[in-house]
Amino acid sequence: MAPCLASQVERYAEAVGTSTGKAIAALVRMGLESQETRRPEFFKRLKQNLAGDDPDQQDRLAEEFRAIILGR
Asked: Mean of the per-residue pLDDT values for the chain?
């Protein structure tokens, strides 16, 4: 694990009063849950906007979907 990430995990563990291992498990679980909640949003927006004929709107939507999927 990168040193900067390790220190962030240690700070999180201290803040919530748990071990580093449990903190890592909690952070992984939160990440997976977040991914699961983003997926339905992606498909909802995709379905709503697939019928659009405007190329500019299609490009914008592609960027939004990329951000949702990649979390950026």
From this structure: 82
